[in-house]
Write a structure and sequence with these properties.
Layout lengths: L2 E5 L2 H18 L4 E4 L6 H11 L8 E4 L1 E3 L10 H13 L6 E2 L8 H14 L5 E4 L21 E4 L2 H7 L12 E4 L2 H5 L3 E6 L5 H9 L17 E6 L9 H9 L8
Parallel strand pairs: 1-10, 2-3, 2-6, 3-5, 6-9, 9-10
Antiparallel strand pairs: 4-8, 7-8
Helix pairs in contact: 1-2, 2-3
The protein binds 2-phosphoglycolic acid (PGA).
């Protein structure tokens, strides 16, 4: 099963995951990071600002999970823009090495295949950061997604469009379609790190970690991964049946073992 780490707050989660990423980059200067957007990963990127300052990050590579279809990359809420603003610029990464799926309609027919090929050419993702939607999606793999799915176009659920309307002037401006790494693509990353904060995520987290493997809750795909870490605050952990065991396990973890 996934290792579950229950932390005090989002800041502590950010620090924990940032430490893991810094150690990865120290081991491998051209590490391949799987980057997530949304509010959840922001504490990780925030913590990385000071941790990576002064380090050579010129070789670090990155692949975003998803992008809206039909949105101009220069739109402030395109995931290309978000990744540039929240990750590439503050961390001083080389923009040429940071990839985001191409949501342009003209090339969308082969954009998924192209993206999976680019990930494969980079040797795969070393550490994939994940959030989880209130409907259990990871990336934009909405309920019903195949566990074997590759990067492809999906239709966003009404719930996801409502959840993301806060980033736009109105829900009508939230794109209907997206291109997202598939669950099969995500499962190929060498280490999955899923973060979730707040009561609103508690049900999705419990389902993903302890529920049955089901396409109805795409996050449950992490149970198939040999190295998945779930970092949650108390509120997001509140529906986990084995919460006490996770606390006990983490408190007694050997110091030589990272997350
Ligand atoms: P959030 O989104 O981090 O903005 O809550 C998570 C997700 O939709 O995967």
């Amino acid at each position: 099963m996934a290792e579950v780490v229950i932390v005090e707050n989002a800041e502590a989660a950010g620090a924990l995951v940032a430490t893991e990423i810094v150690e990865l980059i120290d081991r491998r200067q051209d590490a391949v990071l799987g980057l997530a957007t949304g509010s959840t990963p922001l504490p990780v990127y925030q913590a990385l600002r000071s941790r990576l300052a002064g380090r050579d990050v010129s070789q670090v590579r990155g692949f975003a999970l998803d992008e809206y279809v039909g949105i101009d990359p220069s739109h402030p809420e395109s995931y290309r823009s978000v990744i540039t603003r929240e990750v590439v610029e503050p961390l001083g990464l080389d923009p040429k090495r940071i990839h985001v799926p191409n949501g342009a309609e003209a090339t969308i027919q082969h954009a998924g295949e192209d993206y999976d090929a680019a990930i494969a050419a980079a040797g795969g993702v070393d550490l994939q950061i994940l959030g989880i939607g209130t409907d259990g999606h990871i990336g934009f793999n909405e309920p019903g997604s195949s566990f074997a799915s590759r990067t492809r176009v999906k239709t966003l659920t009404e719930q996801t469009r409502e959840d993301n309307a806060r980033f736009f002037d109105s829900i009508d401006d939230v794109p209907m379609h997206c291109i997202t790494q598939g669950l099969g693509t995500i499962l190929e990353a060498r280490h999955l790190v899923l973060l979730a904060f707040g009561e609103g995520k508690a049900e999705a987290v419990a389902g993903a970690v302890e529920g049955p493997l089901t396409a109805l809750l795409p996050g449950s795909a992490i149970q198939l991964h040999p190295h998945a870490t779930v970092v949650v605050d108390e509120a997001a952990a509140s529906k986990l049946q084995l919460a006490d065991y996770y606390r006990y396990t983490f408190a007694n973890k050997p110091s030589w073992q990272g997350i």
